[in-house]
Design goal:
This protein is α/β, with parallel strands linked by helices and 313 residues long. The protein has one domain: 3-Layer(aba) Sandwich (UDP-N-acetylmuramoyl-L-alanine:D-glutamate ligase). Helix content is 33%, strand content 27%. β9 (156-160), α4 and β10 form a beta-alpha-beta unit. The longest helix has 15 residues, at 258-272. Residues 3-284 form the Carbohydrate kinase PfkB domain. It catalyses: D-ribose + ATP = D-ribose 5-phosphate + ADP + H(+). One of its GO terms (biological process) is D-ribose catabolic process. Its cofactor is Mg(2+).
Length: 313
Amino acid sequence: MMGSVLVAGSANLDYVVRAERIPGPGETVLGRDFRTFPGGKGANQAVAAARAGAAPTRMLLALGDDALAVPVEASLRAAGVELDIRRQHAHATGVAFICLSDGAENAITVAPGANTALVADDLPDLAGVDTLLLQLETPLDAVAAWAARAREAGVRVALNAAPARALPEALLRNVDVLIVNEGELAMIDGQAGDLIGALQRLPVPVAVVTLGAAGCIAREGTQLHLQPAFPVAAVDTTAAGDTFCGVLVAALAQGEALPAAMRAAAAASALACTALGAQSSVPAHADVETLLLGHTDAAGLDALAASCGWRAA
């Protein structure tokens, strides 16, 4: 299990309605297609890590004792994720209600259900684990305890700080790799200022900020890395961020340098936007490799640097 990834986090069943646009407050919009997809940030990231290639992937999750759990569990197992399930009889399996617009934007409401029942003691043995990947759709006290336990065991801790919320310093001190979008970065930093300034203020060794269609930027110690996005015709961005996190962490667990891990994650994230659903849109490793081989980053690098306010020395 050397180079293995353990994901501790949420698993949901997503209820997805496609519509011309996302309704505003108090507005009703007629939708078209309705489908269900296995989802949840933790489960999506576990599927992405497992499909990324060589990193064995395990997941700690909580599911209800109900029919909703069946497709969620089946999707994870089909992707090759080894499961540590905490079955909950007093809570239903988590669900998410997603409105997906024709412009590939979405609005999401989550009813976490069984995910709220995970506690600090649920974390399985960490022997042989290279990286523990966490998110914030499970109780914050449990996430903080898992990070502390991993730090004590010498396991790298990666945190996708989503959904956005302020984080206690004690948790951040135990994080090795922080992955956020711009909104989540602003919530954690709590200061007005430029993107690079916020990155530099984060009290973590490595911080990666995803910038949607522009790409991503990372600070590793004092060094900055920029990775432009791979242009695609997007139809659903629901799991793009989760795909990025899972692939990035899997690459790091297998010993890839951060720039190479960012490039693979950006490619996988782009491909995830070209298919419907969460886990159903996570691309296979071979498809990511094909995209990487056929693409150069030069075209988007200057635009990304300008949008970040970065100037080469």
